[in-house]
Design goal:
The chain is mainly beta and 94 residues long. It has one helix and five strands. Helix content is 7%, strand content 47%.
Amino acid sequence: MTNTDVTPEMALRNRRKMRSGRVISAKMDKTIIIQIVRTMRHPIYERVVRSNSKLYAHDAKNDASVGDTVRVMECRPLSKNKRWRLVEILEKAK
């Protein structure tokens, strides 16, 4: 398959959001919690503000552990809170 042979399903899959962050919990079976840290400049005070968000992601093989840096991809709802799945582990914890 060449780059010009893109099906509509592949185009939709490529539009899914990707995030990377640090695993803060891996206590659940096949589920990890990832913390995403985002820095932005405050529009009025012009000070750098750091904001955190937590994502629940599906880890089918239970590969990730606390402290790992991972990349996750948006997917269909898998449970009440899980809307992301683990794509790859970028860096293992030391």
